[in-house]
Structure prediction request, 127 residues.
Amino acid sequence: VIGADTVVAADHQILGNPKDQEDAVRMIRMLQGRTHQVLTGVTVILRDGVRKKEICFAETTHVHVYPMTEEQIRDYVASGEPMDKAGAYGIQGRFSAFIEKIEGDYFNVVGLPVSYVYQVLKELGEV
Prediction:
């Protein structure tokens, strides 16, 4: 079993999924023109008969966002893309045009640090 959840952190605040469009606008305003962190907590549970292995870890990626105009923010939010995403954006979608650079694992920002999960499974002898 692999379980994971992703949050965005900016200004000492955790940004989960937006409640509505105005909340999404608020979040994007906080992120534009700055650097923030994306954190994904992952738990891997393996069972082999009576033996149980459990590994928990968190991955952090720093994301740098270009400055955005109010019109760009509202147009992005109006697309509907940010409504089910932590921090109100998807790096793999339309918002990619506003990403200056990242430091860390791209897949972590998408929602699951796939490469690291693979390495954990490999270390446990499961792949």
Observations:
- The mean pLDDT is 94.
- The chain has four helices and five strands.
- The radius of gyration is 17 Å.
